[in-house]
Amino acid sequence: MSSPNAGAGDHLATTKRGFLSRWGSWIALAIVVVVALAVGTIGTTRPLTNADRLLNVSRTIKCPQCSGESVAESDAAISQQIRIDIAKRIEQGQTDDQIRQAYVDQYDQFILLTPQGSGVTSLVWVLPVVLIVLAFAGLAVAFRRWKVTGDLRATEADRALVDQALADGDGTGVSFDDPAGFDPEMGSGR
Amino acid sequence: MSDSNGDVDAAMLEPARRSHMARNSAIAVGIVVVALVVLLATGKTNDQRQPSAKIVGQVVPAVAGTTLDGASYDIDLHQGKWVVVNFFASWCTPCRVEQPELVKFAAEHAGSKDVEIVSVAFQDKDADVRRFFATAGGNWPVVVGDTGSTALSFGVTAVPESYVVSPTGQVVAKFEGVTAVALDSVIASYGGAAASAS
Amino acid sequence: MNLALGTAGVVLGLVASCAAVLTLAVGLLRGRPDLLRLGRVYTWLVLLAAVMAFVAMERALITRDFTVSFVAEHGSSRTPALFNFATLWSALEGSILLWVLFLAGYTALVGRKFRDRLTDPLVGWALLTMFVVCIFFFGLLLGPANPFKSFLPPVGFDGPGPNPLLQNNPLMAFHPPMLYLGYVGFTVPFAFAIAALVTGRVGEGWLVETRRWTLIAWGFLTVGIVLGSWWSYEVLGWGGYWAWDPVENASFLPWLTGTAYLHSVMVQERRGMLRVWNLSLLCATFSLTILGTFITRSGVLDSVHAFSASTIGPAILGFFALIVAVTVGLIAWRGDRLRSPGRIDSPISREGAFMANNVLFAGFAFVVLLGTVFPLLIEALNGKRVSVGVPYFNRMTMPIGLALLFLMAVAPVLPWRKASGELLRHRLLWPAWIGAGCIVLGVFAGQRGFAALLAFGLGGFAAGSAGRQLVLATRRQGWRGLVGRANGGMIVHLGVVVIAVAFAASSSNVRQNEFILKPGDTASFAGHQLTYVGMNEVVDSNKVQTQALVLVDGSGPYSPGISKYTFGSSVVGTPSVKSTFRTDIALSLLEVPDGPDNPVTLRVTIQPLIMWLWIGGAIMAAGTLLAAFPRGRRRGTEAVSAPISDRKTRSSSVKIS
């Protein structure tokens, strides 16, 4: 983009132009995305009706009799009663957390579909995050190590190995895509 | 392995120093899976699990309402007696199965004034409840109407469930499907029907 | 007659599999190619055995032969004819029979496909592994899951029919077979993975060969899962299609590792890397199908979809433990010697993207597995009961899903080895604008919520990227630009994007309410009008259905109902759904009204874009077919990098110590 004869000042100007022409559309894109997301997240949403609140709370409460369904989904008699009760509590003005706590008091922890994060139960939240972070860290370390070690080159020992294999004839069991593989001298003890 | 050439990185090529990552990760995974298998082998299925009984040991929640006969019932007025609170429904088959046991229990203690039963109809219609008692028997107060919140306050998960309330107003036992023998043994273990506040 | 034929089939299958394992083992360990060639004969025998047993059972079901215990327990003269055929897989023993049929079929197919290379130890070990799996499943049929027990029906006996929940919907006939074709299909690449580990031959040729098997099995599994989800939605009545239920998770886990494999194997083909990792993924996928079978049938984890409890659990768990032990043992023993010494040049490359992909899918699978067994873990540790349900899974998998969408957008444009920022900026520009456009469109359409909008944006980004690849390919090659692995893969990506967007939209915009309506009443909810017209009763051969006729926005009538089955008096709700491309309105009747003039209680669930979930599934299936389509003429695959001869050489008789 810059002409070979450009002086220092021209180079600076070219870089500036280069930056905008390289990143210009992406910056515009970023602005559009941020604005749209902001409008979508903070903008006026339909206010939560009681029915919405009922749905939100009942989706977090397990139907005590069913196999894992929430009270919002199950048609069991006890679920219907719990939905009626939650609706009553919402009308009385209780908050979502108060309602959930009331149910834990009546039924014990298992009634909540989200495991509470204290003690050994918090493992279910923490363990996956830790493992994934560690895995990516491991990947980063591996990438760094690969960069550092530089290019592979063949050593004398490798060349000797290949010569010997060629001299032996075919079918020695050497797989060509693993040059440092089966070595008759090394034996099988590893 | 000689690396006398010097223009090579020995660490990459020496088989003797080949890492054991595959072996170590395999063993780690193997240990985790063994733990998983043990977990799955010893897991209890639903029928082996004890019902949750948070209410046992607590003060009995309010049981009040209109009975089938139109009278009003309030468990607080029955302090000083053993009360068996039985949640049931006419559409529930195990309820029908256990009803004779409750009838037998009621007959055993018909003379004594210290042991009572009260049934609470759960999500049911009056006509069906009446028919249920007509066919299966039973002559004690049956609370009908809007009983949902009563059931929830006990922590009822399904019908039938029965709760034994001591004379001091404490819930001492919970049953899913009850027998007269079981009820008697609970009462006996707490000092018998004639016992006062312990 | 049916009993005799069926039992004979199962016994023949078991005996033939055992004999096959013995023959192949001797052939492999002593280097006797004539014995190895016999392997093919055994595949035909096993297939014959499985077909015998299958035909015997279906005949018994269709003719309602109640002398067979399985038919007495699950068949019925009241069940319609088509359902009787599908009754086979509605209960446990029959489902194992279906599994065995597919397994025998796949084994015979392998025998036929590799008929020219039967003397190759790799094929020998693969067939041996498949026969070992056959032994297990035939053994189940003879032992804990025996459908051919005899029964003496009293006079006038009629069976109860299959579980009412399974009689409601024709999807019942398709979901399990698709699912099993997927599960069982993974046995083939697993067998070759074991063979590769045992013989130490992980040359690229073999895994390319079995990649198509894996793709097809994966395709069936995908279709099976989508059909299962659709069926749940239609039958269970609460507008949900994915509940992170243990059985659903059990089918999802092998799908996740299988998808990771399908991508990761491309790195192996190009760069020769990740060989042991890919072998591990294949073994993990197969192990997870066995684990899934266990979860579905053992009753240890509570599920709406589980088979009724039986004694089969310990056997399957034992087999699972055996598989994992063998796999772990082989990898621990061989793995390090088989690893390639290559390395990746730069993280910003397609290899780098695929490695990140592997980490994400592995993480995804871990989250799903942990959440599923966590209640068991806590109960074993301190006796308390906890529940891990939909809120947990949605919250934990959402970031992973979004990251995967991002990778789906970026990876197809990344070149191998190394990419420059310039190149990425240039190639990703208009896909990124499509993504931005999707966010804007979503905001205008009324969508609110950061996560959902981000999902729209990333989905648009990924769709744009996939579209770009397809446009370039068709520009170069015409219609052939839609066919073949890369292009078919892009179409599958489009399907995934459609499903992701539909999932985000429908789960963030659920509206639900209950209404008590007298005949003629209209309720207004979320912009829709619901009019209760009246009651209706439908009497079928096996059930009586009470329906409430409801007009939705003037059209219909839709008839949610409650069915009472004549046998066993079980009562099952049958919801009714109005589906349009924009919204789905699901109606369910909560209680049978006392009389035709009494009010009814209706539950209404409204969700947008549900239909696009099924359309996305169809796109994925189409893409898989196109990806499996052979491109031009392929050179015969070189079995290994070194030629194999029939004489006894070190390569064909690897010593197993």
Describe this structure in words.
The complex is a heterotrimer of chains A (190), B (198) and C (657). With 190 residues, chain A is mostly helical. Chain A has helices at 8-42, 50-58, 77-92, 96-107, 123-149, 156-168. By secondary structure, chain B is α/β, with parallel strands linked by helices. Chain B is built from six helices and seven strands. In chain B, strands 2-1-5-4-3-6-7 form a seven-stranded mixed sheet, covered by helices on one side. In chain B, helix 3 (93-108) crosses helix 6 (180-189). The longest helix of chain C is centred in the middle third of the chain and has 33 residues, at 204-236. In chain C, 60% of the residues lie in helices and 10% in strands. In chain C, strand 2 and strand 3 (528-539) form a beta hairpin. Chain C is globular. The chains are: A mainly alpha (190), B alpha/beta (198), C alpha+beta (657). Chains in contact: A-B, A-C, B-C. Chain A binds chain B through residues 64-65, 67, 76-78, 80-82, 84-85, 88, 105-108, 110, 149-150, 152-158, 180, 183, 186, and chain B through 1-5, 7-9, 11-13, 15, 46, 52, 54-55, 89, 122-123, 148-149, 151-159.
**Biggest sheet of chain C, in brief?**
6 strands, antiparallel
Report the structural category of chain C.
alpha+beta
Tell me the β content of chain C: 5-15%
**Radius of gyration of chain A, taken over Cα atoms and rounded to an integer in Å:** 33 Å
Biggest pleated-sheet summary of chain A: none
The number of strands of chain A is: 0
Mean pLDDT of chain C: 88
N-to-C order of helices and strands of chain A? HHHHHH
* Gyration radius over CA of chain C: 27 Å
Written as H for each helix and E for each strand, in order along the chain, the element string of chain C is: HHHHHHHHHHHHHHHHHEEEEEEEEEEH
What is the CA–CA distance across the termini of chain A? 57 Å
Assign an overall shape of chain C. globular
The low-confidence runs of chain C, each spanning 5 or more residues with pLDDT under 50, are 638-657
Number of beta strands of chain C: 10
How does the SSE layout of this entry go?
The complex is a heterotrimer of chains A (190), B (198) and C (657).
Chain A: H1 8-42, H2 50-58, H3 77-92, H4 96-107, H5 123-149, H6 156-168
Helix pairs in contact in A: 2-3
Chain B: H1 10-13, H2 21-42, E1 64-67, E2 72-74, E3 82-88, H3 93-108, E4 115-121, H4 126-136, E5 142-144, H5 148-154, E6 161-165, E7 171-175, H6 180-189
Parallel strand pairs in B: 3-4, 4-5
Antiparallel strand pairs in B: 1-2, 1-5, 3-6, 6-7
Helix pairs in contact in B: 3-6
Chain C: H1 2-29, H2 33-62, H3 69-74, H4 81-87, H5 92-113, H6 121-142, H7 175-185, H8 187-199, H9 204-236, H10 246-271, H11 275-298, H12 313-338, H13 350-382, H14 390-410, H15 421-444, H16 450-477, H17 485-508, E1 511-517, E2 522-525, E3 528-539, E4 543-552, E5 555-558, E6 561-565, E7 571-574, E8 576-579, E9 583-589, E10 600-608, H18 611-628
